Backbone:
């Protein structure tokens, strides 16, 4: 994490702004950050976002990209039922966009960091003639009952989701709130068997739970919460298809016992909508029951990079 | 850390290869990795390398870039006197280079990870039509006497360096050995006042120590160890200039008391060359005494990105 030269003014600007934090012994300005870290287990996740793939300017603003780049990682920590603690930021800045762009990007990161009490511990700031690439690594601590994995779903579990799905490309993917508080509340107070955040799409990410847990699922079409953005599309695909496959909703899918699910649906431990969309079954694959009672297979569709 | 689609075959390929490690509870295949982490303090560092800036194909091979991308981070941990434990890897793969390229890149990372017993905990694998961008984050533990910072140099300290300097662009920058063992031996057994690894250049990185420690330095030109690659250049700059300013040597600069320095120079605790190049002084700035006894200022030259 040593870099001088043109970025040096920017790094000094960031260093002056970044707040002290109880987790931070030594922050920006050394070869590595030094963290106070009394946890017995540590969660670590990284996501890289690329201009032209994960966002474009416009419609995105630099602040939005900064917020998104941190939020996608916070969403991963939330999906483990964890508390995010600290982040390091690596960035390749397009030279032609200049210093103000870089500052606005950082302000977006800072906003999200403040909102979730995340210490910005350092990073690596580069510039080049290519597009913006930003990679943030977040460290966190598992909450009360330990990390919630994808692999713990059991036949008979109820499948619950936060929020609504589909049409994220219309704007939600740049301005979502990662479900950190919801994930923490769930993991601290309940026996959550499995959990994942929806980045690839509701169907694709549910399939990750099914694959890792070696189980199947039955979903009910009329229970899938569809976002307003997905209801408003007229591209020939149904709003349900959008909800199942669009991706970047950054909501949580989790599975719990019937008893826990019923308790959650009565007590509503948070304001974010909570919906029961189906059941885990022993038989592999994912089935969807339509309103007329007919069933169809739900493949692991979803938004995909192509190698 | 969820990604499906075209990378999915690659991720499965990586997941099958990556070895178990005592630090790793849950590795690749969940929203975040889960680490066993009994340390009270944690070191964290990140470096992003970009094709066309930090390497080009050719002369670099994908394996070399993988090795370099991990090694630059190991060098940062070494400079804190720390032991690297685990790494996460974020990458944007150029689509046109195909799957074998991605595998060879990963093999390079694995080689370095095995060599230094670093657990590959996970990552984020993307592809796009842009150049290769790779960002690795490494977590480590401080050794015996706690992390060694840049800020602890004191007037009267002797300035010591490992290895030789200059001409790294000829190949060393792709195939250096990060000084992890040397940094650990120093931090475990000696009171090292300050340390940094040389990425920006001997002069530039020594200036980081001087700035953070609010001191100055006197160097002796005839004591600067000059690499064979820097001796062989004929671009109008002296080999001493190359040694002072080239960058990417990835050697250690550190400062210790006169007594410790003399003990180290007699006992030679490791095979890597160890050289006394000068002294820390109270007066700010960096001075170089030439063979004829004359002195000149050494600015914080070094290889720089330009924003």
Residues:
């Amino acid at each position: 994490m040593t870099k001088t030269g043109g970025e040096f003014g920017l790094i000094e600007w960031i260093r002056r702004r970044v707040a002290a934090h109880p987790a931070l012994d030594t922050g920006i300005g050394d070869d590595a950050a030094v963290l106070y870290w009394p946890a017995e287990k540590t969660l670590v996740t990284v996501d890289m976002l690329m201009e032209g793939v994960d966002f474009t300017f416009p419609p995105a603003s630099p602040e939005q990209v900064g917020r998104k780049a941190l939020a996608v990682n916070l969403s991963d920590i939330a999906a483990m039922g964890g508390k995010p603690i600290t982040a390091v930021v690596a960035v390749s800045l397009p030279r032609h966009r200049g210093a103000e762009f870089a500052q606005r990007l950082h302000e977006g990161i800072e906003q999200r960091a403040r909102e979730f009490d995340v210490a910005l511990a350092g990073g690596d700031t580069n510039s080049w003639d290519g597009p913006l690439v930003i990679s943030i690594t977040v460290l966190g601590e598992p909450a009360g009952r330990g990390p919630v994995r994808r692999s713990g779903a059991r036949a008979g579990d109820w499948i619950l989701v936060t929020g609504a799905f589909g049409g994220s490309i219309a704007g939600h993917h740049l301005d979502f709130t990662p479900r950190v508080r919801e994930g923490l509340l769930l993991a601290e107070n309940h026996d959550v068997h499995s959990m994942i955040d929806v980045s690839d799409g509701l169907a694709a990410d549910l399939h990750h739970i099914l694959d890792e847990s070696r189980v199947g699922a039955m979903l009910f079409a009329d229970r899938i919460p569809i976002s307003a953005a997905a209801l408003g599309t007229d591209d020939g695909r149904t709003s349900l298809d959008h909800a199942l496959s669009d991706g970047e909703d950054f909501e949580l899918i989790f599975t719990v016992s019937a008893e826990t699910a019923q308790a959650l649906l009565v007590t509503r431990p948070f304001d974010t909508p909570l919906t029961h969309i189906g059941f885990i079954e022993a038989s592999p694959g994912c089935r969807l029951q339509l309103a007329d009672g007919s069933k169809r297979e739900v493949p692991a569709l979803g938004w995909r990079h192509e190698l």
Summary: Residues 89 and 293 of chain A are 49 Å apart (CA to CA). The domain at 150-297 of chain A is CATH 3.90.650.10 (Phosphoribosyl-aminoimidazole Synthetase; Chain A, domain 2).
